[in-house]
Amino acid sequence: MLDGFLALYIFMLAAFTGYEIISRVPVILHTPLMSGSNFIHGIVLVGAMIALGHARTPFEMGIGFIGVLLGAGNAAGGYVVTERMLEMFKSSKPGKGNGEAK
Fold first, then answer.
1. Ranges for the NAD(P) transhydrogenase alpha subunit C-terminal domain (predicted)?
2. What CA–CA distance (Å, rounded) separates 78 from 83?
3. Which of 83, 73, 85, 66 is nearest to 27 (CA)?
4. The dihedral of CA 8, 11, 13, 15: what is its sign?
5. Per-residue pLDDT of the chain (102 residues; tens, 9 = 90+)
6. Domain locations in the chain as residue ranges
7. Measured between alpha carbons, how far is residue 32 from residues 36, 44, 64, 93 in Å?
8. Could you give the angle at which helices 30-53 and 58-88 cross, rounded to 10 degrees?
9. DSSP code at position 93
């Protein structure tokens, strides 16, 4: 019982700390921050795959499969969002800043 409360306490503390840190990031740094978080999502995905590989019961396998599914979706979605953010920095005028001749 104590382990559950300790895990919940650590989760709540990490969520609060993460929210406070992310809310103070300047707008110009959001794209590099997203790229870094995509790296972390990849590590989470590998961890979920390892956990699924060590699963023995159907319940553990189900939870592991859901973890892999959500981790993969999170990583892929992060790259899509980062790409869309980078598109906002490109010039919309032809011949200006994109290497085309004027």
1. 8-90
2. 9
3. 85
4. negative
5. 668 888 899 889 999 998 888 788 787 777 677 777 777 888 888 988 999 999 999 999 999 999 999 989 988 888 887 788 778 777 777 665 555 554
6. 27-88
7. 6, 19, 30, 25
8. 160
9. S
